[in-house]
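Proteins fold reproducibly. Take a sample protein:
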Amino acid sequence: MVNTKVTLSGITLDNPVIPASGTFGYGYEFAELYDINILGSFSFKGTTREPRFGNPTPRIAECTAGLINSVGLQNPGIDKVISEELPKMRKCFHKPVIANISGFSVDEYAYCCERIDKEDQVGIIEVNVSCPNVHHGGMAFGTSPEAAAEVTRAVKAVTTKPIYIKLSPNVTDIAAVAKACEEAGADGISLINTMMGMRIDLKTKRPVIANKMGGFSGSAIFPVAVRMVYQVAEAVNIPVIGMGGVSSAEDVIEMMLAGATAVQVGAANLVDPFACKNIIEDLPRVMEQYGIKDLNEIIGGAHK
């Protein structure tokens, strides 16, 4: 018998597998396919103060071993998320969820985090300072240690729940940004968000995506994600949630060895809606294959 339970900031998860924000909606579409309560948790769609229609179409471009998206934080806004989406979510998911919050100013981050902090089913607030597909705001906060720390301090001042800062990989020194967030009071770090990518249509000789560039995700970015998770785990003493190209139980183990306590699965959900279910079901087999009795014993194992 193997132990797949892990603990994030006092919250025990049945397993470390968490669908990433923006790839799982609010869960109820997936709940029609399988019992999503097998998940450790999930991070719901990125939420802003005002409703957002998102970026112009086309928003998606395919590429080898991944995809590029420029959705632009499409969401109904914090008021509707609280009044409509969370009650629907509660009917199909009975564990604490992760609320992903985005913003275009420090005040907006603080406002949305303070509102969502009062919701019972939210266990962790994941603050996205890294979204690369909006014209202003997210990118700037995530690429500067000082700006990321400023957001962290602001949201910590108005919340009671654990705050995890979701970092952008589009920086020179990811560890410096993580360290600044930790010093500002962050309870944990999530990484990596999407990288920047672009495709050009040979027929039209124009960018495929209307926004020209977008967030590059999928299995192609996994080695970069593992490297950055490793670097951040070395730099901070708070939990790390690793993500970026994860698509198998083996990938989950590798991320945890790099230093992640839990692991988010993103683009794989868009390719196969059963991706997380399959990973969770395969995890005990892979643990036994590599002689792992308890996942907690391998967290950061590659650093020893």
User: Anything to note?
Assistant: The chain has ten helices and 16 strands. The longest helix spans residues 78-92. Residues 132-138 have pLDDT under 50 and may be disordered. The two ends are 26 Å apart (CA to CA).
